[in-house]
Amino acid sequence: MRWPLPLTGIRTDSVFARRPFRAHTDRFYSALGERYGLPAPSAAGLRTTFADMVRTLRALPGHPLHEEHATELVVLAHAGTDAEASWPAPVLSAQLPGVRRAFAVSDLGPVSGFAGLEVGGAYAAAMRCDRAVVVLMDQDRPIVRAEDRTTWATRAVTLVLGGEGPPLGHLDVSVTRGAAQTPGLPPSSPPTTGAWWHLPDTLPAVEDVVVTGYDPTSRCAGRCRIVPAGRQ
Amino acid sequence: MTPTAIRGVGVYLPAASEPVEDVLLRNGVPEQERRYYRDFFGFGRVRRDPGRPLEEQLADAARPLLDASVAASIRYVIHAPTVQFTAPYPEAVTARVAELLGLDRAVPFALSQHACASALLAVEAAGLLLDRSGPGGQVLVLAGEKTFRGEGEVIEGSAVMGEGTAAVLVGRGGGDRMLTLATRTLAGFHEAPFLTVEAERAFTVAYIEALSGVIRDALDDVGLAAEDVDHVFPHNVNRMSWLRVRQQVGLGAEVIRLGGQATRGHCFGADPFIAWHENRERLRPGDRYLLVAAGLGATLTAALFEHGGARPPDGAS
């Protein structure tokens, strides 16, 4: 699926404030974990939430979410759980000018961001919007199965589609089910942002740049080809 | 563009139920407040299935919709949870449902952040995805969740939660045509369900106006009036608030299909679809109806549909 708006910005962020868990969260997570035979998670330690993360980005001078441009569409994506049940999309809906739709895509492991882009592209075309922002997020202490050895980190990758600024390329995004994992391809680490983390270093490019991800749980493969501006 | 359409709704209601009194007692709600839930909000019993995984409950809702040819047409399975996580990584509830149903080619993911209104957004998203994925495809939208302890069982001052689930078959054309979807997100309530007392009061005041407003937004968008609405399939919260919304919008006296509070509780995003299913025999060709939901956070949504078939001319019986 070709995004109707060009990619005009991309950046990575990994500095987010942390705070103690609120008491209710421990109870909530305990109930969730019980169903999967997990011990009650420790309430100790500092964490952040996805809502806190987007508030941080919004307050950061120079960040695309800090700007007062009308942004009709906001898409968030995450593979892991939130530290608390927070509402990052409503936070941005209320704070950014012009938001008509804001939502999150998850439950698809490392392919969550690719699916977010696919859904976002469908909305951007239907809404004929001028500017959209997609934020991929990971947290360093999600609730996981005991045997899971995934490496996590708290960080975000922000993509800006449309709006002002020279185009960096056009996105062709696809998510397919039933694909086999490419042999030798390391897992995306951390799951949501891993595959995208070094993309800003490669753009603009003269050749196509391809980002891929694979979710072994669903056997879904995500692919995003960034076609240089000026070439279709 | 061919319109997004609901082609079928399947429902799963656990056979077991529990008096709301027991749930409220377990959660430390004092007697005076418990009376409100019973006598004013209209809650009676909640359906629960404590030993059963969520994915099985969702799959049971979907099974009646899927014969072999329908199953082969499913391009996406979208779960629209209220809380944005339903399992520890790398578990994936939506993928597990797809597997249970034998939907080997469908891409499974969750769409969230509108809380209990997320399922209405998912129907809209399903239609848009189908518009770009070639002819003949359909999407399965799933709604409903397990009741967690504490805030997962009771939303203070609003609802007692149940575990009914719904599956919605979405296509382009045919079935019940989506006329429009209107949604509003209110500022200042992002800490829900842990709002301060002041914010809770402010939300109670804002809620009626905002829900009425989003229904008006939907009607205005397609040039219809309140009296053109034949049915409202609502989310099962505070019954009294629905009566106030009905008055504010000017909806007909008998169009809001309440009743779920007494028999099943507030089943997260599944409520409007369970109400649709419960009242499906009342739908006549051309009937216009609203699916309405409000989510923590706070997002309120009204989706307007027209039931399949030609509407009789005005005055015809």
TrEMBL record, chain B:
Keywords, alphabetical: Acyltransferase, Transferase
Pfam families: ACP_syn_III_C
Organism: Myceligenerans salitolerans
Lineage: superkingdom: Bacteria
Name of the protein this chain belongs to: Beta-ketoacyl-[acyl-carrier-protein] synthase III C-terminal domain-containing protein
Taxon lineage: Bacteria, Bacillati, Actinomycetota, Actinomycetes, Micrococcales
Domain Beta-ketoacyl-[acyl-carrier-protein] synthase III C-terminal as annotated: residue spans: 219-306
Coiled-coil annotated residue ranges, if any: none
Classification via SUPFAM superfamilies: Thiolase-like (SSF53901)
